[in-house]
Amino acid sequence: MPIFLSTKPSMEQPTLPFRFTGGFGMSSKDEGVLMVAQGFYAMFAQAILFPFLAKRYGCLRIFRVAVILWPLLYFVVPYMILLPQRYHILGICFCLFWRTTAQALTFPPNNIMLTNSAPSKLVLGAINGVAGSTASLSRAFGPAITGFIHSKGLSIGVSGLSWWVTGLVCMLGAAESMLMQESSMENKVADLMDEVAIDDRNMIDPMSIDAAIVAATQARVQGTKDVPRVAEDLPRPPDVGRAAESSLTATTAPRMPR
After folding, report:
1. Distance from C-alpha of 14 to C-alpha of 170, rounded to nearest angstrom
2. d(Cα 76, Cα 79) in Å, to the nearest integer?
3. Which DSSP helix (H) or strand (E) runs through 219?
4. C-alpha distances in angstroms, 88 versus 31, 69, 209, 249?
5. Is the peptide bond before 17 cis (omega within 30 degrees of 0)?
6. What is the CA radius of gyration of the chain?
7. Gap between the Cα atoms of 179 and 194, Å rounded
8. DSSP 182
9. Angle (CA) 21 27 29, round 5°
């Protein structure tokens, strides 16, 4: 975008729909003011706009809407130079507003859904590391590739070639977003509990549980019936009173003379 803003306007007559060149011819000072305004709006969009929309509609839904509308931005931006001179600043502000909003509604949901898709916290660092490396690789080769395409487009009189090629790449990403599924930690915990329950049911035989319950019930009933019978089988203690009376009678009785 800064290169497109600083490119001098072309004096050639455009041949629609694709053959036209030039830019807005803005100074570095004006570009700096626009970038500062974009930065403040980006802070607002990520701190206030994104949390509100994510809470209301969900991360995956707003992510899909943003990536579906993003290719349109790349197809529209080159045509902004065809606007009358007095409408240039409005077109630039509109495009910057669109791009900043799309970034605020795609990058945070992407990071959130990437974190939620991790099967375990043990591999979360590896997943984020691979994602960060891939993003850095794209930032490294992206400007070189798009710069080459932009120079080729200027040589054939099509200044929007790099924008439109990037729009095609964004269309692939928008199509891929339709295959995405949102996962959360609550769903993972529920799935894990279901797996544990299935494993427990497979490890313990229901017939064995029923047989054990029936055997315990029968043993309890049988033990209740055998309590009186066991009491009857116990040996009775001797009658202490009768034994003492017999001993006393034998002692006090007079002996008959022989």
Report:
1. 26
2. 6
3. helix 206-233
4. 13, 22, 80, 139
5. yes
6. 44
7. 25
8. -
9. 150
Using CA atoms, how far apart are residues 61 and 178, in angstroms rounded to an integer?
10
Residue located via tokens 């590739």:
145
Closest to 59 (Cα-Cα) out of 107, 123, 131: 107
Judge contact between 153 and 160, C-beta under 8 A: yes
0.70 surpassed by pTM = no
Total residues found in the chain within this entry:
258
Least confident span in 82-96, 105-119, 161-175, 218-232: 218-232
Specify the residue for token string 């891929």.
176
Q: Cα 166 vs. chain centroid, distance in angstroms? A: 27
Are 153 and 159 spatial neighbours (Cβ–Cβ below 8 Å)? Answer: yes
**What's the CA gap between 3 and 124, in Å, rounded?**
38
Is the separation of the CB atoms in 50 and 100 below 8 Å?
Answer: no
pLDDT value, residue 204: 54
Q: Which helix (H) or strand (E) element contains residue 170?
A: helix 161-177
**Can you give 51-64 as a three-state secondary structure string?**
HHHHHHHCHHHHHH
